[in-house]
């Protein structure tokens, strides 16, 4: 199974196939407008501006499951993010990332890879432990958990909320470079296959 197999709801609550992103490097987040990590939208927008021309996309799925830190309608969330942080990347309808009625996409994402943390992660999780009773081992623990997906649709990393967009940038660059190298090789092979691949 790949991420392209999923159909989600866009901000207008219309079906949207993630197959639209085939060939792109993706960062999937569960954002929130009233969280201590909300300023990460600024760094995320910075990544988007730098690397979207090279085939990088950010997909934001707001969730109100953690202390109701994503209140408001879908339109209000988008408006807040655009006004406060200049967000231009794709934002989708609010979802549940854990438990009953969780988004199937997130059920899949959670099953793929273990979480990468930084020095502040364990301390943060201890701080919010009382707000997340019944969280299973693979569940999303808080807003701004991030999944990095390569251009073939494979989930390659999961980052804790404490891991900043700036810390993730080097991994984005690496995946984009890999994609570029593969595309260049494919072009050489297809245009002059008699000489073999270089």
UniProtKB/TrEMBL annotation:
GO molecular function, one term: glutathione peroxidase activity
Similarity comment: Belongs to the glutathione peroxidase family.
The keyword Oxidoreductase belongs to this UniProt entry's keyword annotation: yes
CDD domains linked to this entry: GSH_Peroxidase
PROSITE patterns from the UniProt entry: GLUTATHIONE_PEROXID_2 (PS00763), GLUTATHIONE_PEROXID_3 (PS51355), PROKAR_LIPOPROTEIN (PS51257)
InterPro entries named among the record's database cross-references: Glutathione_peroxidase, GPX_CS, Thioredoxin-like_sf
SUPFAM superfamilies given in the database record: Thioredoxin-like (SSF52833)
Transmembrane segment boundaries: none
Record-given protein name: Glutathione peroxidase
Native organism taxonomy: Bacteria, Bacillati, Bacillota, Tissierellia, Sedimentibacter
UniProt entry keywords in alphabetical sequence: Oxidoreductase, Peroxidase
Provenance organism: Sedimentibacter acidaminivorans
